[in-house]
Amino acid sequence: MAEGNFTKVGEEKEGSRSQSEANRKLKYISLAVLVVQNASLILSIRFVRTIPGDRFYATSAVVMAEVLKVLTCLLIILLQKRMNVKQTALFLFDSIVVQYKDTLKLAVPSLIYTLQNNLQYIAISNLPAATFQVTYQLKILTTALFSVLMLRKSLSRVQWVSLLLLFTGVAVVQVQQEGKKESSVSDSSSQNYVVGLVAVVISCLSSGFAGVYFEKILKGSSASVWLRNVQLGVFGTALGLLGMWWNDGTGIANNGFFFGYTSMVWCVIFNQAFGGLLVAMVVKYADNILKGFATSFSIIVSTVASIYLFGFHVDLMFTAGAGMVIGAVYMYSLPKAPSILAGIGTGAVMESDDNRNVGMSKNGGSLTTEENGEMDSFLPNVSGKQKGS
């Protein structure tokens, strides 16, 4: 009997070790996916917007990304409904049309995200990829400020210091980059540094406000992440089509919707459409520190790649500024110190609300959640054990 107990304990320890090893591998995979997605999107947009030849319409690319995103989320909802088309259609009709007041709440952030996606094309078309990647981290600052103002969130001293360091690092990079252009881009005369800088600053402001607004909506709703993305995408597609008609209507009428599209342009669109959804699936196995590390590492990857691809020149001042931003991103992602509850005798420790594994990640207008309950309904259970319904 005792021998059987020892065998059972040994099997449990072995299973725990193998599970821990599997989770560790998934974390490294998550890190790789986050780095590749963050860096490749910026570099690929920069590449397709600066190479000679027919230039595609950025507004049409934004619309195409929204359409693909909606179709993907609809497919996921259909899978969740066990491929029952009628049940899925009734669910969508009730959630989007019948409960139209709830749907209309997403009109404002959808407008902001559509504007933001277009601004990113403008910014990357006029700024070096590395400079954009560093400056775009100001979205952390704007998100934090809107969280304090709109959600009454509290930030730790380390987070306030990291925000100050972030702002200083971006300022240093901008001072260093003033008046500089990439030497290898043949159409550099058409680039406007000021336009690019204004576009990225407005994009950061819109990202911060929309992200916090979304969080406020999520906390007061039980709707699934995928349904919210469908609601977003419906408005995003409509608003994107309106912006496309307003800005490029004549050109698209003459040249066609897919004018200038190449295999690389399609890669950019797919990256924009599925990047946020892909991160939503892998981020379950990562934590805030890993995400911060991935963002920081992607800045390094973008900078190194820009040196070889676009002739970008890195000097001591840019390195110092980028180093401050990378350090700030990592510092801000560190968890808050746990708050000790009253009752010393119990020795109980509870995490603060900000440190629980519940949050949002906005990527290209996609809404993701890290709450395990949301993702478990779609993602496979890594441990192989079935959860109770």
Automatic annotation (TrEMBL):
Residues 358-370 have a biased composition (Polar residues). It is found in: Golgi apparatus membrane. InterPro entries: EmrE-like (IPR037185), Nuc_sug_transpt (IPR007271). It is a multi-pass membrane protein. GO terms for molecular function: pyrimidine nucleotide-sugar transmembrane transporter activity. The keyword rRNA processing does not apply. Its main location: Golgi. Residues 355-389 are annotated as: Disordered. The chain crosses the membrane at residues 26-45, 57-79, 155-173, 193-214, 226-246, 258-283, 290-310, 316-334. It holds the Pfam family Nuc_sug_transp. Keywords: Membrane, Sugar transport, Transmembrane, Transmembrane helix, Transport. GO terms for cellular component: Golgi membrane. The keyword Transmembrane helix applies. NCBIfam families: nst (TIGR00803). Belongs to the nucleotide-sugar transporter family. SLC35A subfamily. This is UDP-galactose translocator. It comes from Knipowitschia caucasica.
